[in-house]
Amino acid sequence: MNELIDTVLKEKRAVLIAIILGSIGGITSVALFSLSGFIISKAALLPPLYIILFLAACLKLFGFLKSLSRYGERLISHEATLTILNDLRMTFYDQLEKITPRVFTKYRSGDLLSRVVGDVETLQNFFLRVFYPPIVTAIVFICTMFFTWFFSAWIAAIILLSLLVTTVVLPALILMHQRKKTVKILLERSALSTEMTEFLFGFRDLVISDQLSNKTNDLLHLAKRYAQQQQKRSTEIIRHQAYNTLLAMLTVVAVLTIGAYFVTTQQLDGLYLAMLVLLTLTVFELAIPMALVPSYMEESKQAMERLQSVMIDHDEKIDAVGTTIKKQPFSVSFHTVNFRYDEAHQMTLKNINFVIPQGTRATIVGASGSGKSTIFQLLLDYYSPSSGVVCVAGQPLESVCSEDLWSKTTVMLQQNHFFYGTVRDNLVLAKDDASDAELLSVLQEMELDFELDEIIYEKGENLSGGEKQRLALARVWLKNTPVWLLDEPFSALDPQTERRIYERMMQKTMGKTVVMISHRLMALQRMDQVLVMDNGELVEVGHYDDLMQKKGYLYDLKQLENNRLPS
């Protein structure tokens, strides 16, 4: 909550103006109704006309000030709220950027969407309904108490006692009752958002597998549960407001009863009784919304904690973002690295040791599930090792700024995203100053017969698997940094196309550091190193010819591949 308060206080000027205008609006509202009661009582005594005209003029003045101040208060407070929400979003996005994409390994996309959109939107209630309304209410009540004390200390004491119960005791009881329910609502909203996102992503597969109806029913069940939680919360809010309203009305009755008694005992001038009753009625209109403060405060607190939890889980990485890769040979090395995924029972990687010097090309091979992609994910800083150290350019990867790492590397993953737009739009992501001639040249090298203005659908839905992979390779060609990290770059290509593009890649990467994962054992003799993985262990490291002469694990894999190839 301290971070949230600090964010609000950045808008000191707007906060101060909103409090001042809100206080003026509340005081003039009380003055307006109090003066109305006084005029009614005064008129009954048939005073001179100029007195009635003067009081009526004051009444109009208070009415004008009330409307003007309330309008200004709403304008300033809502503008400040939008600015505060914008600051919160930018702060969250800035921090999220530093830990992307590793954050996606822990949080599902729908859950992140719920936090970024829903939880941030929830925080708008903090300033509008939690932060400054109690301050305004306190100022108005203090002024009211001071004014009422001149007419009757007993009535002022009754209003004060009722105020303490309405704004302190009752909200405290509500807060104790509300805490667990607020958490449950946010979790239900997160679950619904997560499942809805997954439903949209997997809609086509659900239709094909004839599971659309079952998944829809599950989604409707979640929506119903969330709606029920929201309904319960709304009912409780109405109930709490009703309690405050009841207490306010009882206070009005008490003021009227005691005031009437004081009039009969001549302790109070009857001229002021109506004024005090209307004053009490009006001032408690400000106190009634105080019943909502605990709900909104707890909701804001939980929403802020959910946002911060994403950052807290990755604090170490955020603290290290200022470290850049030093100017020295960009070698890649693993030193006694062990790794286990969260909630997994077995180690995925066991005691991995290797060094890939700068300017050399290495291929990581092995059976499916042997740990090849996990090495790649550790190298890209998606995960941190359970033990051991991953180094780039002689520096521990955990101390290196991820953005600096990615700026110096050309990366191709198994799954590559394509944005809705033109071929040009999707290529310039790798090199924003590339000319059309350069883009067309790369497309030609990738054997893609595309026009630069040709439209690509979201996620490349109008492309074949091979076209997607070659378009992703075109990005690699364009970025062309000294370090290339490639995960199964040719898996979707036919053998002939693969050989031609592989040959071009070997020419393109002369003198560069290349780490490539491949399940195919083609042209390994062209690589400087072959790293052979089996069941999470690095079982062989060396040049292809040397490993084949040993007739070890790589030799067996090659024989199996040859036997599977058509004769």
From TrEMBL:
It is found in: Cell membrane. InterPro entries: AAA+_ATPase, ABC1_TM_dom, ABC1_TM_sf, ABC_CydC/D, ABC_transporter-like_ATP-bd, ABC_transporter-like_CS, P-loop_NTPase, Type_1_exporter. Keywords: ATP-binding, Membrane, Nucleotide-binding, Transmembrane, Transmembrane helix. One of its GO terms (molecular function) is ATP binding. The chain crosses the membrane at residues 14-39, 45-65, 130-149, 155-176, 242-264, 270-293. It is a multi-pass membrane protein. One of its GO terms (biological process) is glutathione transmembrane transport. Residues 332-560 form the ABC transporter domain. Its main location: membrane. Residues 16-302 form the ABC transmembrane type-1 domain. One of its GO terms (cellular component) is plasma membrane. NCBIfam families: CydC (TIGR02868). This is Thiol reductant ABC exporter subunit CydC. The gene is cydC.
